[in-house]
From TrEMBL:
This is Ornithine cyclodeaminase family protein. It comes from Arthrobacter flavus. SUPFAM superfamilies: NAD(P)-binding Rossmann-fold domains. Pfam families: OCD_Mu_crystall. The lineage of its organism: Bacteria, Bacillati, Actinomycetota, Actinomycetes, Micrococcales.
Length: 341
């Protein structure tokens, strides 16, 4: 055997508690996501369309497989793969609806660098993407946030938005009263902005400046109605199953996506019917968010613009946040080193 073939390879395993101990802050997560979105706009990322694995399990859930590479991370860039389950009934077993595992690799050798619990990665990168979108597309003086959905990424959505805006009120709701009440209490323990629980999506969205639809539906149901979107509103629908009306895009001044190719792929997504019917097309799309963050196109240009962002969850966000976690873990020698070969 050659000397090269005999070389030992070790990788770092990071459990959920390991990652919790690193105490990532919202500003550094938002910054990491903002940076990678800008890199995407400059063409410094590579990723494949997400894939779905749908087991024969009676329809209780499926897996998403995301693969991406970011050139401007580390000395040579970083490649990564994440597998995340989407199992809505998991709350009945005391489990998160989204459990994930991520692996990072050296793109010049293929050497695996890390295996980590990516459940937190999935939550915070989605909330950070919502926040980055709002940073560039929402009115700076937004005062009312309406949020539908109480599990998964909901906590990160609200708390990261709250870190950027001086809200007067945050309204939350979800399908189950006990779920939305528990969510509100969780938020009140973390932020000082008044949080009000409401019974319906209509109440949550009424006269809101920022409208977030993060529901967990089993079949399409119009929770975010077109009439609820006032001039100047910023709208983010991203539930797996569509919860918006088909004519929603008709009132939008700008429609932005994270990536147009990704918006066209897969079976799921809030605006899947709009893509399938041609209402969302290259002609009606204003920009990819990376074009705006990198300065190639303007974001919000007037206080009256209605702007919608549909983000489906790009793999490069997972890679960026996972790399942030790995970097902090290396600096503090957190985790367990495992012999690979």
């Amino acid at each position: 055997m050659s000397q090269q073939a005999q070389r030992e390879i070790w990788l770092r395993f990071l459990s959920g508690p390991d990652i919790d101990s690193l105490q990532l802050t919202r500003p550094e997560i938002i910054s990491a996501v903002d940076d990678v979105v800008a890199a995407h706009g400059r063409g410094e990322t590579v990723f494949e369309p997400r894939m779905h694995l749908v087991p024969n399990n009676g329809g209780v859930g499926h897996f998403n497989v995301l693969r991406g590479h970011v050139s401007n991370l580390g000395a040579h860039g970083v490649s990564g793969v994440k597998v995340v389950g989407d199992f809505v009934p998991n709350y009945l077993q005391g489990l998160p609806s989204e459990l994930a595992m991520a692996t990072l690799y050296d793109p010049t050798t293929g050497v695996p660098l890390c295996v980590m619990d990516a459940t937190l990665v999935t939550e915070v990168r989605t909330g950070a993407m919502t926040a980055v979108g709002a940073k560039h597309l929402a009115r700076k003086d937004s005062k009312i946030l309406g949020h539908v959905g109480a599990r998964g990424t909901a906590f990160s959505n609200v708390t990261m938005l709250d870190s950027l805006f001086d809200f007067d009120e945050i309204r939350v709701t979800s399908k189950r009263p006990e779920s939305r009440e528990a969510f509100a209490e969780q938020l009140r323990a973390e932020i000082s902005t008044p949080v009000r629980v409401v019974d319906t999506a209509e109440e949550a969205f009424d006269n809101a400046d920022i409208l977030i639809e993060a529901s967990r539906l089993n079949e399409p149901t119009p929770l975010l109605r077109t009439a609820a979107v006032k001039p100047g509103a910023f709208v983010v629908p991203y539930g797996t199953v569509s919860a918006v009306e088909l004519d929603l895009l008709d009132v939008m001044d700008k429609v932005v996506v994270d990536d147009w190719r990704e918006a066209q792929s897969g079976r799921f997504g809030a605006l899947r019917p709009h893509v399938d019917t041609g209402r969302l097309s290259p002609e009606t799309l204003y920009a990819q968010l990376g074009e705006i963050v990198s300065g190639q196109k303007p974001g919000r240009e007037s206080d009256d613009e209605r702007i919608l962002l549909w983000h489906r969850g790009l793999s490069i966000l997972d890679v960026a946040v996972a790399h942030l976690i790995l970097t902090k873990a290396e600096q503090t020698d957190t985790g367990t080193m495992l012999r690979y070969r």
